[in-house]
């Protein structure tokens, strides 16, 4: 079953700000739910909470990946 497309918000400058669900991040990183929530809990992956829903901006996921690549390269 395909996951739904990410939610899209627009920043002040008119840039699209896509928000991903935890299952979408799980699929992109090929990690389990607990691992993704551990990244969120420890602040390694930024997120926002809307009511009871947790959403991860795509730029936060990209920043996380770049940071991990830089750490591994060092």
TrEMBL record:
InterPro entries on file: HTH_17, SinI_DNA-bd
Residue stretches making up the Helix-turn-helix domain: 19-66
Domain of life: Bacteria
UniProt protein name: Helix-turn-helix domain-containing protein
């Amino acid at each position: 079953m395909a996951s739904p497309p990410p939610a899209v918000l627009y920043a002040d400058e008119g840039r699209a700000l896509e928000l991903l669900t935890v299952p979408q991040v799980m699929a992109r990183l090929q990690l389990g739910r607990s691992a993704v929530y551990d990244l969120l809990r420890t602040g390694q992956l930024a997120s926002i909470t809307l009511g009871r829903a947790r959403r991860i901006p795509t730029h936060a996921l990209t920043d996380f990946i770049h940071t991990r690549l830089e750490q591994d390269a060092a």
